[in-house]
Specification:
CATH class: Alpha Beta
Oligomer: single chain
Order of helices and strands: EHEHEHEHHEHHHEHEHEH
Distance between the termini: 21 Å
Strand order of the largest sheet: 1-2-3-4-5-6-7-8
Bound molecules: phosphoenolpyruvate
Number of helices: 11
Structural class: alpha/beta
CATH superfamily: Aldolase class I
């Protein structure tokens, strides 16, 4: 079965943004994205306090909005956590789960990331499941074993139909926020590995969108997005400047032509 020809570019604002500056950024991104072809999808994952603002400014535009994490629980006595259903109340489409910063600073295990993914799907969100290896793991030849374990912990909890709807983001930890990007061929090799793992879950699952993340900038995006198994990007730092983010979206469109 031939794969869908679509690209997806999602911004991860991390813990950045203030209400005034967000207004300009969201408005500019919505305006710029309206000129893109419809097979280039665009999203921004904002801090939860800005979901209402995102909904107000992006509704009716082609840009979807999302959260950067969800609780593994549907609700209850979990102080500080945000349930996937709460995000749905604000029209959210995407939920990043298992970002390396959460795995590292909040000790999120592969099993917890799996449970969060399942919760997001049950609530009707599209999970963007992040996987990636540290520099030490890469240098010791453990990349496939590490990301394979991270992905397996998610896939084992999902039906084939559910798995076909996830997005997977390969984000080598050594490339996030460091200015070091994986070489396009290096990233493609890992994406091809991930695609094979998805294929093992089912033919339809192999069509899931696979994003690359880690210091994607306007000047390296096109080459990365031109790789056969790279369906777009998860963009951190460069998503905070509308000009850069839109240039990356434009690179996704160019890669489709
Ligand atoms: C990220 O945080 O998901 C990310 C890819 O960050 P950056 O683009 O800044 O490396």
């Amino acid at each position: 079965m031939s794969r869908q020809r679509a690209k997806l570019v999602v911004g991860n604002w991390k813990m950045h943004g203030r209400i005034d500056e967000n207004a300009a950024l969201l408005t500019e991104v919505a305006a710029g994205a309206s000129a893109l072809q419809k097979d280039v999808r665009v999203g921004v994952c904002v801090p939860c306090p800005y979901l209402a603002q995102s909904q107000a400014l992006l509704s009716g535009s082609v840009v979807k909005w999302g959260v950067q994490d969800v609780s593994a629980h549907a609700g209850g006595a979990y102080t500080g956590e945000v349930a996937a259903e709460m995000a749905v109340d604000f029209g959210v489409t995407y939920a990043i789960v298992g970002h390396s910063e959460r795995r590292a600073y909040h000790r999120e295990s592969p099993e917890l990331v799996g449970a969060k993914t399942q919760r997001a799907i049950e609530a009707g969100l599209v999970p963007i499941v992040c996987v990636g290896e540290t520099l030490e793991e890469r240098e010791s030849g453990a990349t496939e074993q590490v990301i394979g374990t991270q992905l397996d912990a998610v896939l084992m909890l999902l039906t084939e139909e559910q798995a076909a709807g996830i997005v997977v983001a390969y984000e080598p930890v050594w490339a996030i926020g460091t200015g070091k990007t994986a070489q396009p061929e290096q990233a493609q090799a890992v994406h091809a590995f991930l695609r094979r793992k998805l294929q093992e879950k089912g033919a339809t699952v192999a069509n899931a969108l696979l994003l690359y993340g880690g210091s994607v900038k306007p000047d390296n995006a096109r080459e990365l997005f031109a790789q056969g198994d790279i369906d777009g990007g998860l963009i951190g730092g460069a998503s905070l400047k509308s000009k850069d983010f839109l240039a990356i979206c434009q690179a996704a469109q160019t890669a489709l032509q």
